[in-house]
């Protein structure tokens, strides 16, 4: 079986998105909260910044670097406890690492991280800790502790999809902001067959889809024939898929293609052929005079004696990236690249280096057609939701930055790879299987969420604290893109009340923070540059009733006034967000007038508030209790002044947690599995003995 397909078979269910709805593409279905095409203003803006990721210029020059004289100088500086000198010498040494150094000399990476930490640069320290963790061949629990202690402030605490979508569901019937809910869409019967269909790629205009399929067999023994197929989008619908003509498809196996912007050059993989250097090789064909030319191998500079597949072109089409499991890499399979030279030939393939590649497997590179953003799949990066996850990395000033997981809206418990994104960054196209037929891969699209957007690089951070105690609060923070309808994964507030998101500049957003500890916080903002938000709210004390100054009725009336709406609306939204909570409303009057009249008036007022909240939140009638007490329960027994009467004339709200429990677990983040609290004290970096790096 060709190995450009082999990883897919390990997956079963490729994209475990946890989404309940499927829509057939050939049906013109209008989805609520659907993502709209981005404005040109948004598309043009992308803020990129260098992180602390170091450069390793030697990885494609030497296999292993060793300099005994330099090592002795490092040890000498450490024995004198001259930590800045030791750090500088060690960084110079590590900067000359070849590929083998990363698994043979891993302790040097984490030791350098310690030195940077000790001398006051936690960002540089984290960069080297990450490299040590990505390339370790043995357990490094101490490195994990050091890294976790520094990363705690920036930990990403995504809300589980079920909790997130429960919140969306609760709010669907009330007139307030709510997050959109993405729906994966089948590409339809014109493209998908009863056999495996996978490996999509699009042209620049996203109206030509080329993909791999195993729908055909050959020979008397019905051997599966993997070929490339194409379909065109016409009037919003995809045409019936047809195989690419000869000489692209051949008696051998073809798949995993990418096409140039002008549509005249096709790079693809051919496997198990007489001219292949290895199991699978990269080939190129040009479209001339109305037909494709005879494919040519990219030659021994690019192809190896192993598996070479999954090509993708840079926006300038001068660099080709691909996956390979050739010897000499960092892990089981790596991302490699080759550069087109002045004579039109491709240079010797080079490894992308230790930031992108790990000791595990990296596959399915995809270079965005408009931006210097490379997407790829990996099972060796530090934040991982399942098996293979999709990541993105930005190229800033010629340096690839630390990869970013594109989040749980795409990455699930299974594996995600073999995908493409249209130039407008509207949809992700990928292969997945349904539970009823795990072996049959079909092609789907899914609205590209914020975490995967190439221009989501403007940083928004903030914190939420109680306005009285100044203590941080627990809760879930959601961002709603009101301009483009792009879905943003919700996050938990960290233990210190902080949160952060990377969003698209130039758009309008609503921030929604929910918790049983306080009434929901909503804040609208237009994003212009990196933003810091300092938020406060009043925590709810469940031991005391809530009394609001704005809840005042006209004399002897039980009619809800417009001035009451904001407070009552907040209570209604709270009840919607927390469907297991109940509410008790009690009406009270002052002592003036007829006691029986006051009793009836207080009951009518409590009932009026109950009806308003039920109607506003579309709540069932059994969640709210209302009772009038007239003047029977005054707060001030001796009602002598107007202020005393105003104090006694009130409406009390008591929020009741279910079964007397906290019931706030969905609004608190669980620690990541396997993480441990960092040691309270960090020891000084210890010099190594002898020559034992």
Automatic annotation (TrEMBL):
Which named protein is this?
Answer: OmpA family protein
Q: Taxonomically, which superkingdom?
A: Bacteria
CDD domains per UniProt: OmpA_C-like (cd07185)
Key word Oxidoreductase present in the record? no
Identify the main location: membrane
Under SUPFAM superfamilies, the record lists: DPP6 N-terminal domain-like (SSF82171), OmpA-like (SSF103088)
InterPro entries, A to Z = 6-blade_b-propeller_TolB-like (IPR011042), Bact_OuterMem_StrucFunc (IPR050330), OMP_bac (IPR006664), OmpA-like (IPR006665), OmpA-like_sf (IPR036737), WD40 (IPR011659)
